[in-house]
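SEVERITY: medium
COMPONENT: batch folding queue
REPORTER: lab tech (J.R.)

DESCRIPTION
The queue accepted two submissions in a row. Attaching both inputs and their returned structure tokens so the on-call engineer can compare them side by side.

ATTACHMENT 1
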Amino acid sequence: MGIDFIFILKAIVIAIVEGITEFIPISSTGHMILIGELIGFNTSQTKAFSDMFEVVIQLGAILAVIVLYWKKIYTTVIEFFVFAATRKQEAKRGFNFWLAVLIGTIPAVILGLKFNDFIEEKLFSAKTVSFAFVVGGILLVLVENYYRKDLRKSKRITKDIDKISFTQAIKVGVFQCLAMWPGMSRSASTIMGGWISGLSTSVATEFSFFLAIPAMIGASLLKLIKFDFSIMNKTYWIALGIGFIVAFLVALVVIEMFINFLKKKPMRVFAVYRIIVGLVLVGLAFAGIIK
């Protein structure tokens, strides 16, 4: 069987979408589902591969976080194990940081293991994603208007990612569970959780990046364990490899741009985009144009 270059091109498009949308609050999964429907990437013949592909290329985006924050990751991981073994106080910062990340991951792990099959069966459709776009956009506007405004006046705002409390971490982790509804956005959910728990926008955003590491690696491993690799062919392997690299490179650029954007602008622009796109898609879904 020859190589299907058109399919590989479609995979590159999906990888670009993943790299752009993973860390901004507009839902990467939702966009990949919808764009995949539009370009014919998610057909009945390719669904098993495309489902796995869309999860695995998220690892490429996560690799971008690891590269950009490598110094902090390396230093704090060393400190975590040093403190765990010796209780040296100078290493406590790294221990507390990764403990906060692990605590923030627990709610998603518990709910993910319990409801994963239900989510995959009931929520991965253009119609449900469209509703999630709208709901997530409205929530983003409400939470930003109410909590972010108060944070600017508050003296108790957490402006240092190393000072996130375990209570704040668990609150953010609970909000991260909203992202199990495809289209809600893991980034938007965790940032809203950060605002509500008293984190500054930059700290909430960076913490969402670190929370993504265990959450998305775990989701990818779960998908890979279930995947039937006997269906893989040359086209699929090439698409997977190129998709991973493209998602990594695009995310590398987008993360820095997003952080710089947040220093100057509110999130409202993303919320408005979500609501407008979501309403259009809801209309298309009810018209039977998308399913």
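ATTACHMENT 2
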Amino acid sequence: MGFRFHKSIRILPGLRLNLSKTGVSASIGRPGATVNVSERGVRGTVGVPGSGMSYSEDIVTRPKRKRRAEPERVGWLGGLVRALTRR
């Protein structure tokens, strides 16, 4: 399980600045309908306030950058199993 961080700051009514471990975004709207603008693109969300139910969809997305292949990460148990099953 990884460490997570999120903080939302109200700038004006209907405008929030969102801070997280991975970046910054801005949300515009009110409970029930919000548009979020971030480095990843623009995302719209509609929902029923207080119910926990919502629908979210990317409106505009930025193309993903190609990354170099990274070695597969495994936890300590996965590493132990691999070490024991190596031939």
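NOTES FROM REPORTER
Helices lie at 76-85.
No errors were logged for either attachment.
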